[in-house]
Amino acid sequence: MPIYIVNITINPGLAADPAHRPIDADPASVLGLLLPSAGGGAAVEVPLRFVLRGSGYFVAAPAQPLPSWARSLQSSPQVRWRIGGRVLSGTAAPMPPGSDSVAAVLSELEARHGSNRVRRWFGPEPVVFELRASDARADETLQAHFDRLAPVYDRQVRANPLDRALREVTVATLLRRFHRGDRVLEIGCGTGLETLPLARAGIEVVAVDASPAMLDRLREKARGEGLSGSIELRRLQAREIGSLTAVYADQTFQGAFSDFGPPNLEPEWTGIPGILARLIQSQGALVLTVWNRTCLVEMGLCALRLRPRRALARLRSPVPVGLSRFGFPAYARSPGPFLRPFRPYFRLEELTGLPVVVPPYDFFPRVPRPDRVLPLLESADRHVRGLFPLNRLGDHFVAVLRRSRAAPPGPPVREPEIGPNS
After folding, report:
1. How does 23-61 read in b/e, with b if 16+ C-beta sit within 10 Å?
2. Phi, psi of 326 (to 5 degrees)
3. Is 104 helix (H, G, I), strand (E, B) or coil?
4. If we measure between CA atoms, which residue out of 295, 250, 301 comes closest to residue 276?
5. What is the distance between the alpha carbons of residues 205 and 183, in angstroms, rounded to a whole number?
């Protein structure tokens, strides 16, 4: 998809800079650096290729001659940039020449574009800047939350029959779509509640997660079951999976899935469908289990308990801590808007509410006589969870998509004549 400069106020000193011409590239690998105009008018947006490492966005520039946007970062470290539809603000800092960070950034750029091209673009000693968003601490807080949760996570799921039932449904859904010998990508693996059943079935899983403690717990469990050879672990956030295109060839995976978390933790998922389209083979399955924006049972139960703020909490974005069962801000999604960016690459095969009649799992302590009530509710749920419009009114929705035959393998990456920031 073409990346264009928007809201440009012409400044003769900037207009001559080739770094301000539009480039065509995968939107997931391009950010728009927002520079103030000399006259104080609308900002100038400079499209730049970037590498995402942890919470830092890294961009490179040739040292000779140093582009005007790079000189701007040197003189004013306060900076704004755009990723998809999201505008971030924070600070820019040059990385020490020859440091490990610089070497890692250049290595990833070379893996994507080739060493000759990167050397031609940036010269022998590039200048590398790290852009760190002011909300980077939120990522670190979220990671710390899941790190603390890792030792008790499995026990908490097992102790709640409603939570266990969710996992049973998603595992069954995955085992119907993926088969022995397949290689699949899991985004947000946690402690492996879906990873391990697939590995036991002879499916190879490349599992990514942002929490080191969750990955360590999964590694330990896989080793204990003799499944380490079937599971490859990588520490990545969902928005960082574009880096996998430098590691795996196009259409490496027979499918992918992401359940219970990642689709609701990232403010934007708009760049992810194109990346998945590159990685997944034609006709491969993509399964997404997403916390829904409209949960009819939750709204009704909270209204009966005279808790209107909680009843309508999912309509807020993000849903604040204290108005959901999560210990962090989360983004509830509606099926239509969330799935729209997938349409150029995937077709929707199945949409299911999970659950629709059964209350959300955090309501389990309030269910009267659960040994008698829950079997009746679960039986009803199995009959209606796939019916329109009830399949859009559950606690979660499970979307099964299929990689289109005719769709292109992800957004085109057309290299510019001058270089990555031209």
Report:
1. bbbbbbbbbbbbbeeeeeeebbbbbbbbbbebbbbbbbb
2. -90, 155
3. helix
4. 250
5. 6
Q: Take residue 209 and report the two structure tokens written for it.
A: 């997660």
Stretch (H or E) spanning 271: none
β-bridge mates for residue 57, sequence order: 52, 131
Query: 181-202: buried (b, 16+ CB within 10 Å) or exposed (e) per residue?
Result: ebbbbbbbbbbbbbbbbbbeee
Mean pLDDT (10-residue bins), the chain, 422 residues: 30 34 50 74 80 81 91 82 76 86 86 86 91 70 84 92 95 97 97 97 96 94 96 90 87 96 84 92 97 96 90 91 83 94 95 96 90 93 96 97 73 37 39
Write the single-letter amino acid at 191: T
| Residues pairing with 346 in the sheet | 403
For residues 102 and 146, the answer to whether their CB atoms sit within 8 Å is no
Q: 49 forms bridges with which residues in the sheet? A: 30
Cα dist. 100→48, 121, 312 in Å? 22, 20, 48
Contacts of 115 (CB under 8 A, 6+ apart): none
Query: Which residues does 160 contact at the CB level (< 8 Å), separation at least 6?
Result: 361, 364
Residues 6+ apart with CB under 8 A from 331: 264, 265, 266, 267, 317, 318, 319
The owner of tokens 């899991």 is 186
* Rounded Cα gap, residues 421 and 134, in angstroms: 24
Which regions of 188-311 does DSSP assign to beta strands (E)? 204-209, 231-235, 253-259, 280-291
pTM of the model as a whole: 0.70
Crossing angle of the two packed helices 136-159 and 212-224, in degrees rounded to 10: 40
What is the CA 250 to chain-centroid distance, rounded?
19
Residue 310: both structure tokens together: 């909680």
Q: Which of 210, 160, 174, 175 is nearest to 189 (CA)?
A: 210
Helices marked H in 126-177: 136-159, 161-177
Give the span between the Cα atoms of 302 and 299, in whole angstroms. 5
Find the DSSP H helices in 236-295: 262-265, 272-279
User: How far is CA 387 from each of CA 18, 207, 287, 352, 359, rounded to the nearest angstrom?
Assistant: 54, 32, 18, 8, 18
